[in-house]
């Protein structure tokens, strides 16, 4: 058993549940932070905690060496303010508790004025988590592909429900999806590694694809058919372009809500990020974690296999 005490926030979530299991399997002492510990059935020892309640954070973080921060409010209209407040609160509580490392899963994308609100919020959280002096290790990822993940489920449900996809221009944006299992391996790999303290790393799978290519390849793996995609041109000039772009984002978010289980607010926040290229440009993570990430088709097969193993139909 490891002598490192680990706290996983978001332990009931898509990434957090898999991470908690992997850490326990690796021999670490794990606390799984949740608002309702009495109902927790996952890996690790449940502990009550709420990002918005500093008193509960003090108790959850007491004696913790490394804390994983996997919390965000994508479904809220005020997610930027909520995420900022949560990061400030958690960073302060971690500093008071003597935590020696916070590990945060953020988002890929080059810094600059064109970042979407979603990605801009992720960057702000990176800074706020370490504002009180705790070293933060950031892993920046694009879409994480795995059973139960919002972005992957959106992809799976789209190619399953439509004979033809009408794609706006952001379908041509390049992205670098990563498998859930590889994401978790990276998260575990930076645990209590001094050479990772205070650093940001980019992580991604083996393939760089456009969103259109992701949809088409997922369709082939899932159903054996190549779903036709019709691209829609978009005016991209000045105020008119901005207005049209806003209309497309709104229509897309309502379309996603109608065709998938993604709610309108989450769909809107995801769509607004899809015109930003999210591709790994720095492979320095290889100097810390020795991993050859899998390709897109393999991660799709793995996600579909996990879905079947849980008794859910394709």
Low-pLDDT runs: 234-260
CATH superfamily of the domain at 5-143 and 178-205 and 279-293: NAD(P)-binding Rossmann-like Domain
How would a textbook summarize the main sheet?
Answer: 7 strands, parallel
CATH topology of the domain at 5-143 and 178-205 and 279-293: Rossmann fold
Cα shape: globular
Task: Measure the end-to-end span.
Answer: 39 Å
Identify the quaternary structure here. single chain
Q: Strand arrangement, largest sheet?
A: 3-2-1-4-5-6-11
Q: Round the mean pLDDT to the nearest integer and report it.
A: 85
- Give Rg in angstroms: 19 Å
Secondary-structure element order, as H and E? EHEEHEHEHEEHEEEHEEHEHHH
CATH C-level name of the domain at 5-143 and 178-205 and 279-293 = Alpha Beta
Number of strands: 13
In the CATH hierarchy, what is the architecture of the domain at 5-143 and 178-205 and 279-293 at level 2? 3-Layer(aba) Sandwich
Structural class: alpha/beta
- The percent of residues in helical segments reads 40-55%
* Tally of helical segments: 10
Q: Provide the β-strand percentage band.
A: 15-25%
